[in-house]
Amino acid sequence: MSMISNTGSAIIIPGTSSRFLDPAGSGDQGQGRLRYLTGGSGPPLVLLHTVRTQAEHFRHLIPLVQQRYTVYALDLPGMGYSQIVPGASYDEPAMRAAVKRLITHLDLHEATLLGESMGAVLALTAAADLPDRVHRVVAVNPYDYAGGIARSGLLARLIITGVIAPGVGPMLARLEPKPVMRAILTGGLADPTALREDYLDELLSVGHHSGYPTVARAVYRNLSSLIEARARYPQVTAPVHLIYGDKDWSRPSDRQANRRQLPDAEFTQIPNAGHFISLERPDVPADLLNAVA
Q1: 30, 146, 198, 282: which is deepest, by most CB within 10 A?
Q2: Are 200 and 181 a contacting pair, CB within 8 Å?
Q3: What does each of the 293 residues of the chain score in pLDDT, given as a tens digit?
């Protein structure tokens, strides 16, 4: 198994510490060691990031909620500083299993799950599986439709298409020039200045971990499993709040489809906001969370 030699992010979030969850049984071996950030006080709040990011994606949100919640921001399998396991699966069921492992192994109850993009899908499906442990779900711009990041612009469409292609894909996955990475990520922002240089540098540094290009390629190639996971949404019994940026990659038809899947869910659309709400408008989910704490 590949272990990350550098287990410390260059980004420090005051009041949090980095911890690790080791495999406890044979079923956990495929996910390896999971890293998470934790801090604060109050009922548990589990934060789930999206494709090609990590727990520090919530660096601006955590300080706004840690007076009312004990935060657990997970690095999904193989991402951030979680262990990279050769041959591991990165489809939705495998990543959902890691979320459930965090919740059950830490014995969290009355937990609120907040996920963004891919993390929003995992928050909903994990809640469907753990009705006795999950108290509320906040799903921010769920990434559960065809196209996804390719809708952010021509460059992203070309890069992602190349990364998942056979033959040339592995080579492209290893190449992440900073200007290209910046262009892809700012394609998910209404305000490009919300992408801070130190966060971009952190993501590029993690991208150099041994085996990480294989992980990134596998995640992109399994995005269709997030679409399939929508079938599980009606099984969620906890209250759900859907948050969308009005400039998100999802189309109005995608958003309405989820409102039909979750007819009792509350719905908020944020003006002049894109896909990465936690980077450009962390105040919106923070205000919602604090109001119901």
Answers
A1: 282
A2: yes
A3: 444 445 589 999 999 999 999 998 766 667 899 999 999 999 999 999 999 899 999 999 999 999 999 999 999 999 999 999 999 999 999 999 999 999 999 999 999 999 999 999 999 999 999 999 999 999 999 999 988 777 777 666 666 666 666 765 566 656 677 888 888 889 899 999 999 999 999 999 999 899 988 898 888 889 999 999 999 999 999 999 999 999 999 999 999 999 999 999 999 999 999 999 999 999 999 999 999 98
Contacts of 59 (CB under 8 A, 6+ apart): 11, 13, 199
Beta strands at 240-245 and 111-116: parallel, antiparallel or unpaired: unpaired
pTM over 0.90: yes
Whole-angstrom CA distances from 103 to 71, 189, 258, 292 are 12, 30, 25, 20
d(CA 124, CA 130): 10
